[in-house]
Design goal:
By secondary structure, the protein is α+β, with helices and mostly antiparallel strands. About 45% of the residues lie in helices and about 20% in strands. The strands form 2 sheets. A 4-stranded mixed beta sheet has the order 3-4-5-6, sandwiched between helices. A two-stranded antiparallel sheet has the order 1-2. The protein is globular and about 35 Å long.
Length: about 140
């Protein structure tokens, strides 16, 4: 199964105990996120080696983090920053735009990198992420 199919949005299930607007994270979505953590692409694994253990400005990142009906590749919850890694077969720009719009309405900033960027331009990727985190701390 392609990674893009694994990250497809699911309809959230309303949570009766959570009050109005609260959603219960779908078990299927959680299972997909766990599988994606166990089976990262080479680019995802490389980026994770640079983000884990608060290496980026002491910011805690979580990988394959469920946010509503989506799975974010990497999320810095305190900074409200989502990092997406777009694979070689990742070409559904309309779905990406819809996903980004939804995440932005939840207060997240979204930055995207291609596999090629991560594999060959890690210094540039690092600079873009660092700049995004610096901009957040200046707010």
């Amino acid at each position: 199964m392609e990674r893009a199919a694994l990250a497809a949005p699911l309809t959230p299930t309303p949570s009766p105990e959570g009050g109005e607007g609260a959603v219960k994270v779908d078990d299927l979505l959680l299972d997909r996120a766990k599988r994606m953590r166990r089976e990262p692409t080479p680019a995802e694994a490389k980026l994770w080696r640079h983000l884990r253990d608060r290496q980026m400005g002491n910011t805690k990142f979580t990988r394959q983090f469920v946010i509503g009906p989506y799975i974010a590749d990497y999320c810095a919850r305190d900074a409200k920053l989502v990092i997406e890694v777009d694979g070689d077969t990742h070409s559904d720009q309309a779905r990406d735009a819809s996903r980004t719009d939804w995440l932005q309405r939840q207060g997240y900033r979204v930055i995207r990198f291609s596999n090629a960027d991560i594999m060959s331009e890690m210094d540039g990727v690092w600079q873009v992420i660092s700049a995004a985190l610096t901009a957040e701390s200046a707010r």
